[in-house]
Amino acid sequence: MADNGISRRRLLGTAGATGLALGAAGGAAGYAAAPSETPEQTPSLASLGADTVMFHGKHQPGITTPLQSRGHLVAFDLTAGAGRKEAAALLRRWSATAERLMAGKAPAGEDTDVARDAGPSSLSVTFGFGHSFFGRTGLEKQRPSALDPLPDFSSDHLDKARSDGDLWVQIGANDPLVAFHALRAIQKEAGEAARVRWQMNGFNRSPGATARPMTTRNLMGQIDGSNNPKPSDDDFEQRIFVPASGEPQWMAGGSYVVVRRIRMLLDDWEKLGLKEQEAVIGRHKSDGSPLTGGTETTEPKLEKAGADGEYVIALNAHARITRPDQNGGSAMLRRPYSYHDGFDKDGEPDAGLLFVCWQADPLRGFVPVQRKLDRGDALSKFIRHEASGLFAVPGGAVKGEYVGQRLLEG
Amino acid sequence: MADNGISRRRLLGTAGATGLALGAAGGAAGYAAAPSETPEQTPSLASLGADTVMFHGKHQPGITTPLQSRGHLVAFDLTAGAGRKEAAALLRRWSATAERLMAGKAPAGEDTDVARDAGPSSLSVTFGFGHSFFGRTGLEKQRPSALDPLPDFSSDHLDKARSDGDLWVQIGANDPLVAFHALRAIQKEAGEAARVRWQMNGFNRSPGATARPMTTRNLMGQIDGSNNPKPSDDDFEQRIFVPASGEPQWMAGGSYVVVRRIRMLLDDWEKLGLKEQEAVIGRHKSDGSPLTGGTETTEPKLEKAGADGEYVIALNAHARITRPDQNGGSAMLRRPYSYHDGFDKDGEPDAGLLFVCWQADPLRGFVPVQRKLDRGDALSKFIRHEASGLFAVPGGAVKGEYVGQRLLEG
Ligand code: HEM
Ligand code: HEM
Q1: How do strand B383-393 and strand B124-130 relate by DSSP bridges?
Q2: Is B224 a residue of the active site?
Q3: Predicted ipTM of the assembly
Q4: CB contact (8 A) between residue B28 and residue A104
């Protein structure tokens, strides 16, 4: 297995894309732009199926893992009869299954065969605990205050049935059947202990479809993820992960994930002209560069004014308002999937972003930034938050351990 | 553009998979089976984004085109004010957009940018006309009798709102954002002339996830498509396409598509053991070979009996009952997508097959075979037909022509 290659990719946090992909189409048709910078590393597409993500490690997979082209988010509630003991057994089963599947092995017992013939295709499985989990399992004392319910935001349109949950599982893979296979295996392993509460499907670019090395596009057509914290940043670990000395101890090496199903009002959005769309974000749509110039990785010049005396990057531009330096240092790692569940009765697409963001502390990450967005940035009128969840995602399991063991047997 | 390469792939009708993909995972983990036969041709994954399907040709794309990993099916109804003239203008716009996008160019006018940076990724767009189209456009005289409504089947559980429609569009691509981009462009081009009636999303294996060259798996874990008619068969053209001398003349080179949303009752299915599952189909799950032995491409020995005196391939086995030689020669080209729209209230997956099959005449293809399945084969109790459509898909446009022009201006 290409563990070394993979580890390097995980550290880079880049999507599995290749610089080779666009030779013909880009050249002949001119639609595909040249990559805005040289890829630091171009994973080989020949190994798409064989690519493996490590299950064991300091952190769980699926956080700094390059975005896969297919994703499932699923929340479970413990059943009435299930307590701490059943939850521990469940996490033990789930961890064993995740480890096997991520290594490209069949699950123990009868298999559905849906992933048969395919390699693991960068499958990752990530487990988290919701606020309600701790009451049901008598573990209130272990509940981190960071799991306190998110504040209500005035613009929320939350569907409670698709929000929260005792347990949360994130599945990603570069093959949709491999991802579905894992989802089904995880659901089956839940047995009598837990039931699906809600489930969502998402997607991103296929590896090889584009020559861009860094980031994906969302369904508004924007390059998304440009100014994410990078694993090479000095403060990356500190911002995203709970430190070894952190509280509660069972969360050492863990992270808090905020999940928001954010509908995009695409019919309204697409009525805007290109310039208006770019003003909303403060970056160019073509290559993600700031409106003040440069490339995707250039720092925006927030103070720069145009001939009209107005800021080039407007005061309500999304990419200005959300910056750490505008929010007392608050930062998060965004790792979203797009979703599209068809059209509603008015012919409007039920589509948008499964916004998934990671941080060591939601009160120093999502919450202050969303509070500000809630007062209204330029993007707000084109989106609607329809579901929400906050989960404690413990550190990765070491060999012989299962995810959450330090909580459940601590 | 790799037109020659693509044409060869289209003729082969094989999925875009590579023999390289499984080196590591297959060897190390042993889950992935070796391919059951040598691929006749292994398209290069390095060109996933650049791969192009031809818009112009004798037949429309998306029929013998290798299955893409992402698919959208969408039906439109003409609006009250729209007649033949508006329909003609619509098909002209749609054809121009399909041609541009399939060549990897941006659509005319303002673009959403969702496919930007990506190559066409084997995008195909296919257009068809439903029974109701002809009345709305005053073209009843041109309506083929082959479009007569399908008979009712006793096991049907059809949702009318997700069935039929004036116009049908099938979109396939190896990148989900490229497919969504095309769907949105097509919807936008409909303008005031037509509204979305229903829309479904599907998927298949990603190129490169498996070394198997021929066929994909469905969500029951079976290899699906093994005994499809092959473009190299003597009677392939005759079975699948309306001949040049066919009736009505505007359908020359065209084909009829039957679309069925078939829910799989996976909770019941997965309770069966492997042997029982294999008996239901009459083929091995591992490699698709008939229960009477050989490989995926070996002819089943229908008359062979086991030690117990019973047929090895049961009389009600799906792959026995559906064979042309059991149905007076009736044959169809199956080109399905899997679908998964989450879980319903009981925790059962809303998942199954977007069954799409092609034939020169539905009365010599889908209808007689489904009549027999309706009386009950071994598979019937594990599936439920939930939506249905039948559309006339005209021949491909030659340069300068639009799809359906021979009907609309004939
Ligand atoms: C559908 C909803 C959203 C869309 C389409 C969207 C889109 C974008 C885009 C295009 C960028 C600029 C490129 C980049 O750095 O990634 C950006 C930046 C950012 N967004 Fe969003 N966003 C959405 C919702 C949110 C939410 C809910 C939050 C947090 C509460 C958020 C936080 C951020 C942050 C922190 C940045 C980076 C700012 C920086 O450091 O430069 N976004 N977003
Ligand atoms: C969810 C529903 C279905 C599933 C899971 C399914 C699955 C299969 C499988 C596994 C095979 C054997 C491998 C192959 O040759 O592809 C097969 C063969 C076949 N099926 Fe189905 N099928 C379904 C519905 C249908 C329907 C509705 C029809 C047509 C009315 C149909 C027609 C055929 C035909 C014609 C063959 C090939 C028989 C031969 O020539 O050997 N199937 N199917």
Answers
A1: antiparallel
A2: yes
A3: 0.90
A4: yes
